[in-house]
Amino acid sequence: MIEYQPSGTPLVRCIESEVAGRRVAAHALPYSGEAGEPAIRFDPLDRSIVLRRTSGRVAVGPPRADAWALALERCPAGPVLVGPGSPVEEIRGAYRAAAEGATGTGRPVYLLDPDPAGLPPRSGRACVALFSWIPDGGRDPSAGVREALGRGFAAGGLLPIVPAWTDAPAFLAGYLDGLAAAGAQFAAAVASSGEADARRRLVEARSRVDPESADRFFEKVHHCDWPAVVRAGLKRFREEAARRGLATIPPRPLGAAEPPGNSAAAARLEERAREVEEDEHRSALFYAAARWIDESRRDLTPVVEEGNFAKVFPFGALAGEAEAAFRAGRDT
């Protein structure tokens, strides 16, 4: 049995992170506690499979947008990730309250696995819906994508690249064809974690949904060159997604309080971070530059146009690319 316990305090984690190439400054959890459905889910923040309990307690955040907005005030500026959702959203309303609270602060918002009842009434450009792959042997994110698109949200799918499972050509073709048919705007791949415990949970998940392949999968997961195989899978995924006209990184939402030029430039720097992801130091610099823009609190486009940007930008090695990002945003 799942016990849903109301909480008067929103659970907001002010932790710098990244989801599918996009920077996230805060994570709002309307429902906290890994119990219930789906029994197996993918967490794109930890880049790992979560095995949920069949019974337990789930803390439910307050169904008031103002409470979530107040909780987010203590977090650094920048995009907020809300989610995942819950099947009880229609009754509890915590997800929608968190989403409305986040957008009400003027921040850009990513909606992770929202139940339809959790989608805010007006999307605009402030929210992008992300639907994770659920490894139950047959479910895909297409239904959620269609619902979100029909409500005016940008929407697409997130897929972990798991050696000998989700990187197989036949699997990728079915997954991407389903997203394309649903009208998805993007399909983003996430490098699954190779940590020992993450691999163990992958093996258990595969054993549950496809027992016949469990032994072969165990051998592959524990004896392959994980980084090399995952890199190859990411490359294959992105090539196949591009062939279907799908972007391979989610669009960055535009918060109501964000200067559009700042948002566009930060988005381009995040994309550069993804492009150089194998150089961890340089990738981290691009994300740091995007964070600096998010936290600048003023419209930087005039500073660029006046030729003074390099005087205030603290990452000298990236000044040229950052200025180019502002100019590219101005021209789109």
Q: What report would you give on this structure?
A:
The chain is built from 13 helices and 14 strands. The strands form four sheets. Strands 2-5-10-11-12-13-14 form a seven-stranded mixed β-sheet. The chain has a three-stranded mixed β-sheet with strand order 1-9-6, with no helix packed on it. Strands 3-4 form a two-stranded antiparallel ribbon. Strand 13, helix 5 (169-182) and strand 14 form a beta-alpha-beta unit. It is α/β, with parallel strands linked by helices and 332 residues long.
Tell me the helix content: 40-55%
In total, how many beta strands?
A: 14
Residue runs with pLDDT of under 50 for 5 or more positions: none
Helices and strands, in order, run as: EEEEEEEEEHEHHEEHEHEHHHHHHHH
Protein topology:
Layout: E1 2-6, E2 11-13, E3 17-19, E4 22-24, E5 26-29, E6 31-32, E7 40-43, E8 48-51, E9 56-60, H1 65-72, E10 80-82, H2 89-92, H3 94-104, E11 109-112, E12 127-132, H4 142-150, E13 154-161, H5 169-182, E14 186-191, H6 196-209, H7 214-223, H8 226-243, H9 260-275, H10 280-294, H11 301-305, H12 309-312, H13 319-331
Parallel strand pairs: 1-9, 5-10, 10-11, 11-12, 12-13, 13-14
Antiparallel strand pairs: 2-5, 3-4, 6-9, 7-8
Helix pairs in contact: 1-3, 4-5, 5-8, 6-7, 9-10, 9-13
